[in-house]
């Protein structure tokens, strides 16, 4: 029984429904130690037979037996294994991988063995030394002569220590001297106990082997035993085998990426620009939100919820603001969102009514979860202020609460008992437009008319010390302390119910939920409170900023579609320019998965490089822009956050995987024979 046997092999090609019989019943047996030449005319079916022996062709009838076991041609995996473990190929046109050095060309075959790193290196170097190429190991194939290339191919074929070497016209492209050298090497390989099967139409080449088989018109016609085969004991298998590790595919992909860097650099740059733009817009969105937050929180306390009564229809007619307004027939000069809430609707008759909050309602607010404090806030419109005989102006008077930011006090402090803070623009500047600061510490009189709790008209006329001068961007703030207010209520028997209460949350994180909750609170089945807070305002503004950010980032992301198309084109170009390489790798025993991984990982590397560059540029541009914008806004307006980076890398990953999908699939599905035949 031979080491390798062919039994009744038939093979036909079809052009449409027309059948062309190429092999018409081949029976042949080979022994280890033989160098068999299959001699025949061009078109006689020699290469077809070699592809069947080498496990590249699956569409034939008959069987191939190796070492007593019949090859299962229907099972791709066992064919991959057969090529990986048993067969080594030498081609007429060398078929070296052009972007790998000759050392790497040999190593790629060793990567599917279980040898350790050092052993693989030593074997590759030894094999290259055996074919006289020690000096050339770091050269690329295009830097070698034809004879040298064929010797690299021989070293590669021998690398994984296969039992069978298939050589398809191994000397077809060589001159006489190189032909002689290659034939000597092939003879030595057979003499070492392997089986060498060579296809040739050269009688001279055939004569240098141990046996010649003639293939004519699909039949074996006659056999000539040139000399006896080498008689050596079957050498022990040098190594075990494994599937190609994923890392090797990544490394090979990286080498190819480097090799074609000029073109790939453009693709990477294009994709990086798209990713950079997405990231910058997201960073700008973050920055704007942060800036708005900061600005609003500078003006108002973020823990505060301002609560008033819900509708004018439910008002009581006893508030001081309404009394004053009724008497004097004027609207109050109101400032700030909270104060605006305090003013109820003006009726058609021109009277203003303001709703007040009862003690029971205030108690209900105090009971809510996450409430730290509840302060009464009194607002009185049309209050007249005088310094001596000099009238400073008429303005609303309010009580100082936690909602007033101390940063609004330009000079002085917040008011204590019998003290007042006055607004710079409406009052202090009347005192002196230049030396308005000098009003600080002066005593001024405060006068207004209102109805007391018995409905009687009273005039409040008090002298207070100016403790501070305010300048708030939200509007004019002239305020007394709650202690002063309470003493007036006592002295003049004024109503003690406030028109506004200031609810302070235990933590700014609760402000928004507390605002919503208070707005929904019911007394006697009716919603009674109207609640506003800076947090809910900020949330609304943030919603708009988010919307704008997403739209801008999405527009930028459109450019990524172009990037994806560019990567697809590159990958398709890569597949077609590497078709032969795909055939070689399959012949070496790489599986479809290995080939798919090769292209997918190259595309992923393009995506990854783009994301890294895009992120780097985004950070650099953000830094530069922030330097410029800081001068205007005193804030870093572009803030790239970790989740933006994650999103960008995610996008790059999706794009590159998507772009690689079709080309990698095409590459993996290539028939190894067609791939090897590619020009
Ligand atoms: N994929 C194919 N489809 C159709 N016909 C094919 C195909 N491959 C080979 N043939 C035909 O099969 C026959 C045998 O081809 P094969 O390549 O095996 O011959 P060969 O003996 O190796 O020739 P050469 O010495 O010129 O390389 C030829 O007539 C060829 O035209």
UniProtKB/TrEMBL annotation:
Keywords: Amino-acid transport, ATP-binding, Cell inner membrane, Cell membrane, Membrane, Nucleotide-binding, Transmembrane, Transmembrane helix, Transport. GO terms for molecular function: ATP binding; ATP hydrolysis activity; transmembrane transporter activity. CDD domains: ABC_MJ0796_LolCDE_FtsE. PROSITE patterns: ABC_TRANSPORTER_1, ABC_TRANSPORTER_2. It is a multi-pass membrane protein. The keyword Transmembrane applies. GO terms for cellular component: membrane protein complex; plasma membrane. Gene3D superfamilies: P-loop containing nucleotide triphosphate hydrolases. The keyword Nucleus does not apply. Residues 311-320 have a biased composition (Polar residues). Residues 311-332 are annotated as: Disordered. Residues 4-242 form the ABC transporter domain. GO terms for biological process: amino acid transport. Its main location: membrane. The chain crosses the membrane at residues 263-284, 551-572, 604-625, 645-664. It is found in: Cell inner membrane. It comes from the Bacteria. Belongs to the ABC transporter superfamily. Macrolide exporter (TC 3.A.1.122) family. This is ABC transporter, ATP-binding and permease protein. It comes from Lactiplantibacillus fabifermentans DSM 21115.
């Amino acid at each position: 029984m031979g080491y390798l046997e062919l039994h009744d092999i038939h093979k036909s090609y079809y052009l449409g429904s027309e059948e062309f019989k190429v092999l018409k019943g081949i029976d042949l047996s080979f022994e280890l130690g033989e160098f068999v030449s299959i001699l025949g005319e061009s078109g006689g079916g020699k290469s077809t037979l070699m592809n069947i022996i080498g496990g590249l062709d699956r569409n034939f009838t008959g069987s191939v037996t190796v070492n007593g076991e019949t090859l299962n041609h229907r099972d791709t995996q066992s064919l991959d294994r057969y090529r990986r473990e048993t067969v080594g190929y030498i081609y007429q046109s060398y078929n070296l991988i052009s972007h790998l050095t000759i050392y790497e060309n040999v190593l790629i075959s060793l990567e599917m063995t279980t040898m350790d790193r050092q052993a693989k290196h030593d074997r590759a170097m030894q094999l290259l030394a055996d074919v006289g190429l020690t000096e050339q190991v770091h050269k690329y194939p295009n830097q070698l002569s034809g004879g040298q290339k064929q010797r690299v191919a021989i070293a590669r074929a021998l690398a994984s220590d296969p039992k069978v070497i298939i050589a398809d016209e191994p000397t077809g492209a060589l001159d006489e001297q190189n032909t002689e050298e290659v034939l000597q090497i092939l003879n030595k390989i057979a003499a070492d106990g392997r089986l060498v099967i060579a296809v040739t139409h050269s009688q001279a080449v055939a004569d240098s082997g141990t046996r010649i088989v003639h293939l004519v018109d699909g039949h074996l016609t006659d056999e000539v035993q040139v000399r006896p085969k080498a008689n050596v004991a079957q050498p022990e298998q040098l190594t075990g085998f494994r599937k190609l590790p994923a890392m090797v595919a990544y490394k090979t992909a990286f080498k190819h990426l480097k090799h074609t860097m000029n073109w790939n650099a453009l693709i990477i740059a294009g994709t990086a620009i798209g990713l950079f733009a997405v990231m910058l817009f997201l960073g700008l969105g973050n920055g704007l939100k942060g800036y708005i937050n900061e600005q609003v929180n500078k003006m108002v306390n973020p823990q505060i919820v301002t609560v008033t009564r819900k509708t004018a229809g439910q008002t009581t007619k006893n508030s001081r603001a309404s009394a004053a307004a009724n008497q004097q027939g004027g609207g109050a000069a109101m400032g700030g969102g909270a104060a605006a809430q305090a003013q109820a609707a003006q009726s058609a008759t021109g009277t203003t009514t303001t709703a007040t909050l009862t003690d029971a309602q205030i108690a209900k607010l105090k009971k809510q979860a996450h409430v730290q404090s509840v302060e009464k806030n009194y607002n009185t419109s049309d209050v007249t202020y005088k310094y001596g005989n000099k009238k400073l102006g008429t303005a609303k008077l309010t009580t100082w609460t936690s909602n007033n930011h101390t940063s609004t006090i330009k000079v002085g402090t917040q008011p204590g008992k019998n003290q007042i803070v006055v607004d710079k623009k409406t009052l202090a500047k009347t005192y002196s437009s230049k030396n308005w600061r000098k009003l600080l510490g002066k005593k001024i009189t405060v006068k207004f008319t209102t109805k007391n709790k018995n409905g009687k008209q009273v005039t409040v006329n008090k002298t207070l010390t100016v403790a501070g001068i305010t300048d708030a961007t939200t509007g004019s703030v002239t305020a007394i302390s709650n202690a002063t207010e309470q003493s007036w209520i006592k002295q003049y028997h004024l109503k003690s119910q406030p028109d506004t209460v200031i609810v302070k949350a235990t933590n700014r994180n609760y402000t928004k939920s507390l605002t919503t909750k208070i707005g929904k609170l019911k007394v006697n089945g009716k919603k009674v409170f109207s609640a506003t807070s800076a947090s809910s305002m900020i949330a609304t503004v943030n919603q708009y900023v988010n919307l704008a950010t997403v739209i801008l980032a999405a527009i930028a992301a459109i450019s990524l579609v172009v990037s994806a198309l560019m990567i697809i084109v590159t990958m398709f170009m890569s597949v077609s320019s590497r078709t032969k390489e795909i055939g070689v790798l399959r012949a070496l025993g790489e599986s479809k998965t290995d080939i798919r991984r090769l292209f997918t990982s190259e595309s992923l590397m393009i995506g990854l490089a783009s994301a890294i560059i895009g992120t780097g540029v985004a950070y650099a541009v953000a830094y530069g822009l922030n330097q410029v914008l800081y001068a205007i806004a005193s804030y870093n307006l572009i803030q790239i956050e970790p989740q933006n980076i994650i999103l960008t890398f995610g996008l790059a990953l999706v794009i590159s995987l998507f772009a690689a999908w079709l080309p990698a699939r095409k590459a993996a599905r290539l028939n190894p024979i067609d791939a090897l035949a590619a020009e």
